[in-house]
Design goal:
Blueprint lengths: L9 E2 L1 E4 L5 E4 L13 E9 L5 E9 L8 E8 L8 H12 L4 E6 L17 H15 L4 E10 L1 H12 L4 E7 L12 E2 L2 E2 L3 H9 L12 H8 L4 H6 L6 H4 L13 E6 L6 H9 L4 E6 L17 H13 L13 E6 L13 E6 L8 E7 L5 E2 L7 E6 L20 H4 L3 E4 L7 E5 L2 E8 L6 E8 L5 E9 L19 E6 L3 E5 L4 E7 L14 E6 L4 E7 L18 E2 L3 E16 L4 E14 L2 E14 L7 E12 L2 E13 L3 E12 L2 E13 L4
Parallel strand pairs: 1-29, 6-7, 6-8, 8-9, 9-12, 12-13, 13-14
Antiparallel strand pairs: 2-3, 3-4, 4-5, 5-7, 10-11, 14-15, 16-17, 16-28, 18-27, 19-26, 20-25, 20-28, 21-24, 21-27, 21-28, 22-23, 22-26, 30-31, 31-32, 32-33, 33-34, 34-35, 35-36
Helix pairs in contact: 2-3
C-alpha cells in the first residue's frame, strides 16, 4: 500500500460560504452531457456501534430539484484526509460530485480526524466492520438514494475488495486500483513470500502517530491512542510466515467475489496480478484494465499513454448505482491490457511504445504457451538437454539493485545485475513474439546451506547488448512444499522450485533475444539471506520457463481507442510547493562487496493559511561477505504549522539482522513550538524464520 499525493489540472471557481462549507462550480458540460452539478464540501462524523466517531468529508452535489437524492461513493483510508491527502482527494471528490454522486471520504479509526485508537494492523476486523456500518449509515442519509459504491487505490482498493466479499446490502459495486487478494505473497511486507522492508512501513507508522486533525490537540488521549501505540513494523516482522494473520481478509482463500468490480492495474506496479485473479474467479460482472504505468490512476500514471478512466467510472456507477442501462457490460473493452511493443531500458520515459489489446474475455483468443529450457552453454532453447548439466552460482547479497525497490517502476539496463546471475539467452528471434499473462518458471536447484532465496527475471536483450527488464519473481524455497509449514533446504540435496512471474506484456522484436536471469539476491527488494556460499542450477527437463504467447497485432490498428485525460480540478484552498524527490541512488563497491541503496523525498504544501512539510530518508546496506548483517535505517519528519502552532513529529527506525535475529528499534519524537513534548523508543529482537 504505497501512497502518493499529486496535484494536476485546472483551478475550479469556488465560493467560501459563511456556514463553513465550500460551494464549487466546474466546467458546465461534459462531452455534451447535461450540465454539471454544483457541490459543497462538508465535514462531519459518523458514530460507530462502539461509540467511536469516524471523520468524514463529503463532496455533495447541490440538488437541482426539491427532494433530489444521490448515490454515495465511499473511500476509507488512514492517509489523513485533512492534511496529507486533501489536495489529491479534491480532484476525485469534485469530479464525481459534479456528475451527481456524493463522495464520502473517511479516515480509518485511530487515524487522521477519526476517533479511537490505532488498529492492531492494516485491514483489522474493526476496520472492515466499520466499512460495513458506514455503508449502512450512508445508505440511510436523507440525501442518499440508498445505493452505495466503494472505491480507491492501494489501501482503499484492498479494503473495498474485503468489504465487498462481506456483501453489505447497500453496496452495489466497487472500483479497485492496485489491490491484492493475497496479503502475504502480494503485498508490501513479504513480496512473493520473502521479507521486504519498504519505506511505506516507516511512513505509515509515522503518519498514524500524528495528532488528530483538524485540532491537532496534544493530550493524554492522544498519547494513549496514537503516540504510545507500538509501531506496526514490529507486528509485521513477527509474522514472517503465511497463516491466519495474513489470510483472514485475503480474498484468495475465500469464496469468489459476488459484488461487481471495476479493476485497474499497472504493468509497473507490484500489485498488478490481482486484476487477472479477481476477473477470472468473480461470480459478478467485472471490468479489468492493466496499463503501462506505476502505482497510480490511469489519467496520470507514469509512463503513459494515459486515458480518462473516470469517464468510464461514471458510466460504471451510472449502471450499478443509478440503474441506467448504458451498455457498459456489452462493450468489447471489458478486458484491456497495454501491449508493450519493446523498448530500450530507461528510467525516465513519459510514454512507452505499444497499443491496447481489448476483448470481452481473458485469456486472449488464440493464445498458446512456449516452453524454453536453459542449457549449460548459457542458451535458452526449445527442448531440454538429454544429458542435463549443472552450473554453480556464487551468492552475492548486494546483487539486484538495477531492478529497484519492488517489482515496479522503470528500470535501466539490467546488465549489472545479470553479471551476478546465471543468464540464459535464446537465439535471435526471426519474427516478433508477443506475450501477455504470467510466465511460469521451474528450477531444479541445490544449495550448500539450509536457506537461500532465488530470484528469476524475464528480460529482453537487444542486438546492441542493452537489457530491458520485463518482469520477475522471488522464490522463498522454505515454502516449496507448503506456505503454511515451511521447511529448510537439505544442503547438497536437489529440489524443485516453481513460481509464476508477475503479470506482464511485451513484444520481443526480430533480432532480439529472450533472457532468463537466475540469482540468489534481489537487494534491496527482499532482505538478504544470511549465509555466504554457493547454489547450483541443474539443466534438463525440470528447469524451464514457459511464456504466455498471444497472436501479434498491428500497432496501427488497435482493438480499442481510449479517451485522453481530462484536466483535473485543483483545490482552490491550497497548493503543492516544489519539493525534492523522490530520488533513488544505488552504490556498489566491487572491491569491498558493499552495496547501498537510498531514497530521499521532500514534499511541501499549503492549505488555507497552514503550511506542511514532510521529509524522509531511507537507506539499505549489505556486504557480500557478511549477508547476515544487513541493515535498514529510516527517518521521517512532519512539520505542520496550524493556526500559528508548530507540530514537529519525527521518527527513526533501525532494523539490523544477524544469523538468527532481527534487531528492531523505533523512536518517536514530538516537539511543539520547538520544545520537546515526548520521546519514546521501542526495541525488540525478533527471531528469523526462513527469511
Amino acid at each position: 500500500m504505497r501512497w502518493n499525493n499529486k496535484i494536476l489540472g485546472k483551478l475550479a471557481i469556488c465560493l467560501f460560504l459563511t456556514s463553513g462549507l465550500l460551494g464549487c462550480h466546474g466546467n458546465p458540460t461534459l462531452s455534451g452531457r447535461a450540465a454539471h452539478y454544483e457541490f459543497s464540501i462538508e465535514h462531519g462524523a459518523l458514530k460507530m456501534k462502539d461509540g467511536v466517531d469516524l471523520a468524514v468529508t463529503y463532496y455533495r452535489p447541490v440538488a437541482k430539484s426539491p427532494g433530489e437524492k444521490f448515490p454515495v461513493i465511499m473511500e476509507m483510508v488512514p492517509y489523513r484526509k485533512d492534511d496529507f491527502f486533501t489536495l489529491g482527494d479534491y480532484e476525485y471528490g469534485s469530479y464525481f460530485a459534479k456528475r451527481g454522486y456524493v463522495v464520502a471520504r473517511v479516515d480509518v479509526r485511530g487515524t487522521g480526524g477519526s476517533g479511537g485508537h490505532i488498529p492492531v494492523s492494516e485491514y483489522s476486523e474493526a476496520e472492515i466492520s466499520d466499512a460495513e456500518e458506514l455503508i449502512a449509515q450512508l445508505a440511510k442519509k436523507s440525501w442518499s438514494t440508498g445505493n452505495v459504491g466503494m472505491y480507491g487505490i492501494s489501501w482503499s482498493a484492498f479494503n473495498s475488495l474485503m468489504t465487498a466479499h462481506r456483501k453489505p446490502p447497500a453496496l452495489k459495486a466497487i472500483i479497485a486500483a492496485h489491490g491484492s487478494t493475497d496479503l502475504f505473497y502480494n503485498d508490501v511486507h513479504y513480496i512473493d513470500g520473502a521479507l521486504h522492508i519498504d519505506s511505506y512501513a516507516h511512513q505509515i507508522d509515522t503518519d498514524n502517530a500524528m495528532p488528530q486533525s483538524p485540532g491537532y490537540r496534544i493530550d493524554e488521549d492522544y498519547f494513549r491512542n496514537r503516540f504510545d501505540r507500538e509501531p506496526w513494523i514490529f507486528t509485521w516482522l513477527r509474522q514472517q510466515q503465511d497463516g491466519d494473520f495474513w489470510r483472514k481478509e485475503s480474498l484468495k482463500f475465500k469464496t469468489p467475489l459476488e459484488v461487481p468490480a471495476y479493476l485497474i492495474g499497472g504493468l509497473l506496479d507490484g500489485y498488478r496480478d490481482f486484476v487477472m485473479e479477481v476477473s477470472e474467479t468473480s461470480k459478478a460482472p467485472t471490468i479489468a484494465e492493466i496499463g503501462p504505468w506505476n502505482h497510480a490512476w490511469p489519467e496520470y500514471g507514469v509512463p503513459g499513454p494515459n486515458y480518462e478512466w473516470r469517464e468510464k467510472a461514471v458510466r460504471w456507477w451510472d449502471y450499478w448505482l443509478k440503474g441506467i442501462d448504458n451498455g457498459i457490460l456489452d462493450e468489447s473493452s471489458r478486458r484491456m491490457a497495454f501491449m508493450r511493443t519493446g523498448h530500450a531500458p530507461a528510467t525516465d520515459l513519459a510514454t512507452i511504445p505499444g497499443y491496447w489489446r481489448c476483448s470481452k474475455q481473458w485469456p486472449v483468443e488464440g493464445g498458446t504457451t512456449r516452453r524454453l529450457y536453459p542449457q549449460t552453454a548459457r542458451q535458452l532453447v526449445g527442448t531440454p538437454s538429454p544429458q542435463g548439466g549443472v552450473e554453480t552460482l556464487r551468492y552475492r547479497a548486494g546483487a539486484g539493485m538495477a531492478a529497484g525497490g519492488w517489482w515496479g517502476e522503470q528500470t535501466g539496463d539490467m546488465a549489472a545485475d545479470d553479471a551476478r546471475s546465471l543468464v540464459y539467452d535464446s537465439a535471435p528471434l526471426t519474427e516478433a513474439l508477443e506475450i501477455m499473462g504470467m510466465p511460469q518458471v521451474r528450477l531444479r536447484v541445490a544449495a550448500d546451506a539450509p536457506f537461500y532465496q532465488w530470484t528469476v527475471r524475464l528480460e529482453d536483450v537487444a542486438p546492441d547488448g542493452r537489457v530491458s527488464l520485463i518482469s520477475g519473481a522471488i522464490i522463498n524455497p522454505a515454502q516449496r512444499h507448503s506456505r503454511l509449514e515451511p521447511e529448510a533446504l537439505i544442503p547438497g540435496e536437489p529440489t524443485t522450485l516453481s513460481t509464476s512471474i508477475h503479470f506482464t506484456t511485451w513484444r520481443f522484436k526480430p533480432g532480439h533475444r529472450i533472457r532468463l536471469a537466475v540469482s540468489n539476491a534481489q537487494f534491496p527488494m527482499v532482505w538478504p539471506s544470511p549465509t555466504p556460499g554457493f547454489t547450483r542450477l541443474f539443466s534438463g527437463a525440470d528447469t524451464w520457463i514457459e511464456l504466455p504467447v498471444v497472436p501479434t497485432q498491428s500497432e496501427t490498428s488497435p482493438s480499442c481507442v481510449l479517451p485522453p485525460p481530462e484536466p483535473s480540478d485543483q483545490a482552490p484552498f491550497g497548493k503543492a510547493s516544489p519539493g525534492k524527490g523522490p530520488v533513488f541512488e544505488s552504490v556498489r563497491n566491487e572491491q569491498t562487496g558493499d552495496s547501498t541503496f537510498t531514497t530521499i523525498n521532500d514534499t511541501r504544501w499549503t492549505l488555507y493559511d497552514n503550511t506542511y512539510r514532510s521529509s524522509e530518508l531511507y537507506r539499505w546496506d549489505v556486504n557480500d561477505a557478511a549477508p547476515a548483517n544487513a541493515r535498514f535505517r529510516g527517518e521521517r519528519r512532519n512539520v505542520f504549522t496550524i493556526s500559528g502552532m508548530e507540530v514537529d513529529f519525527s521518527t527513526l527506525s533501525r532494523i539490523e539482522s544477524d544469523d538468527t535475529y532481527f534487531h528492531v528499534t523505533f523512536t518517536k519524537t514530538l516537539r511543539q513550538d520547538g520544545k520537546l513534548v515526548r520521546e519514546r523508543t521501542w526495541t525488540d529482537h525478533i527471531p528469523r524464520r526462513y527469511q
